[in-house]
Design a protein that fits this description.
alpha+beta, about 280 residues, nine-stranded mixed β-sheet, elongated, two-stranded parallel ribbon
Length: about 280
């Protein structure tokens, strides 16, 4: 068990989806709002949907061992009159390092997504970060960076809003052998009590996310020295048991003469006895 060193990269992508109701005729249309903490060049690619918001991110190290125990994300997005939010998704980009037995460094993200049939005013979530591996990691002397050439968020390669689509980012992430999964058992969606008959809503939507980082099980391929160190006693104990069983069975068979046997005499010893 090892607690990975998970650090914030301070890059966040937030997508709010809902319905906008016009006050004059009550017509409803689908809309989305994008808020992000990304470089300005990337923000200009989605400027039609982007909206300024208040984003706060910080790490918490409760036992002061130099490894963050939890990450905290707070986003507050202003809304216009007539806007109601029904779905919220947020991606928090991370940097993960494992270094006790296995040496691995990779980029990752924690994703929170929730939707409701009722318009919401806030989403509160508290979850555990989990390491998931399709295959055991090999042991090397140097730090492994398997995804360094293909990062999840490559700012230099972002040419359009489609490169920031959440479904595309998730599909790219799911192709990896190692990834981090955020388990949120009890998300709390607070309904927007300010919605009236024409769909007018409160002035902001708030997301409060706590990401806990517990010790995790790291699967790796043991070296030959580790195999010999841990396995020899098992093989030895098996040999002792097998030897004891064979010895007991053989003694019982020969003692009770359950098997047909033949005695072979040495001719030289017979002749010696006859001349004596």
């Amino acid at each position: 068990m090892e607690q990975p060193k998970v650090k914030l990269t301070y890059n966040v992508l937030n997508l709010l989806e809902g319905v906008r109701t016009t006050s004059n005729d009550g017509q409803k249309t689908f809309f989305r709002v994008v808020t992000m903490a990304l470089p300005k060049r990337v923000q200009t690619l989605v400027q039609d949907d982007i909206r300024a918001s208040n984003i706060k991110l910080f790490e918490s190290d409760t036992n002061r061992d130099g490894v963050p125990d939890s990450l905290h994300v707070s986003l507050t997005t202003p809304l216009d009159d007539g806007e109601a939010i029904y779905k919220a998704s947020v991606l928090v980009f991370l940097n993960v390092t494992v270094q006790n037995r296995v040496k691995l460094n990779m980029d990752a993200f924690a994703i929170l997504s929730h939707e409701s049939g009722l318009p919401g005013a806030s989403l509160h979530a508290d979850g555990d970060l989990q390491l998931r591996m399709r295959n055991p990691i090999r042991i090397t002397k140097s730090m492994q960076t398997p995804y360094e050439t293909n990062p999840l968020l490559n700012v230099s390669r972002v040419v359009g809003a489609q490169d920031l689509a959440i479904d595309k980012l998730i599909a790219q992430y799911r192709n990896r052998d190692c990834l981090m999964h955020l388990d949120v058992p009890y998300p709390v969606w607070t309904s927007d009590l300010g919605v009236d008959s024409i769909g007018s809503s409160s002035r902001s939507f708030h997301i409060d996310l706590t990401i806990r980082i517990p010790p995790m099980e790291i699967l790796y391929r043991p070296t030959w020295s580790e195999l010999l160190k841990t396995a020899w006693i098992q093989y030895f104990s098996i040999l002792v048991i097998v030897y004891g069983i064979v010895h007991a069975v053989a003694g019982f068979l020969f003692q009770h003469r359950l098997l047909q046997t033949y005695s072979v005499l040495d001719d030289a010893s017979i002749l010696t006895k006859q001349h004596t």
